[in-house]
Amino acid sequence: MGLIDSNPDTYLPRESGALHTIDHAHAEIHEGNHYTFTHTVSVGTGTAVSVMIQAPATGEVHLVFGLQANLAVTYIFEEGPTTTGGTAIVAHNNNRTSSTTSGTTIKHTVTYGTSLTILENGLLGTQGNPSSRSGGTGEARNEYILAASTRYGIKVTALNAATTVIVNGSFYVES
Question: Count of domains in the chain?
Fold first, then answer.
């Protein structure tokens, strides 16, 4: 069913008469075009966790990503890096009744070469003696519309030993 229905009771409940609306990203879930992925790993001091996302040749990928770490990390989100290798990450369709796939390539543990453009960087958590160190969580509320057939990299570098890093992504594809 689409977002508009000829039956007003679908969107105008009898008890209130209020119009029910959903945002665009939520509508993409209903249409079977919204996806999520996650990558979790524990690493040591100075080790970089890498996730590469390559947009398909057609359609617009609208990406929002989030990071979590139990200890301090730095991160970079970049456009156009050269990469080799890596292990595939599955992007799950948020409409669990849909068999549609995103056409987007996502890999972890890629090897990065040169980078073209840093779009965002930052620090999560705090440094200090072991009793005062803390982790952090961050979410890029910036929505990025990825260029077709272009690679994007998320690199998270641990500043302490035994750091658990989680990279989450949420995106929809408009054709």
Answer: 2
**CA nearest neighbour of 32 among 53, 2, 75, 67:** 2
**Tokens standing for residue 36:** 């999520």
Backbone dihedral angles phi then psi of residue 25, each to the nearest 5 degrees = -60, -40
Nearest to 31 by CA among 158, 170, 174: 174
Query: Could you tell me the strand order of the sheet in which 117-124 lies?
Result: 87-88, 105-108, 48-54, 151-158, 73-79, 117-124
Neighbours of 71 (CB within 10 A): 22
What is the distance between the alpha carbons of residues 101 and 43, in angstroms, rounded to a whole number?
31
Say if residue 23 is in the same domain as residue 52. Answer: no
**139 φ, ψ (degrees, to nearest 5):** -135, 130
Q: Is it the case that residue 2 has pLDDT exceeding 60?
A: no
Report the amino acid identity of residue 25. Answer: A
Q: Regarding beta strands 136-139 and 60-69, do their DSSP bridges make them parallel or antiparallel, or are they unpaired?
A: antiparallel
End-to-end CA distance of the chain: 19
76 shares a domain with 23: no
Query: Residues 35, 100: contact at Cβ < 8 Å?
Result: no
Domain housing 115: 35-174
Confidence class for position 30, pLDDT limits 50, 70, 90: confident
CATH number at 98 reads 2.60.120.680
pTM of the model: 0.82
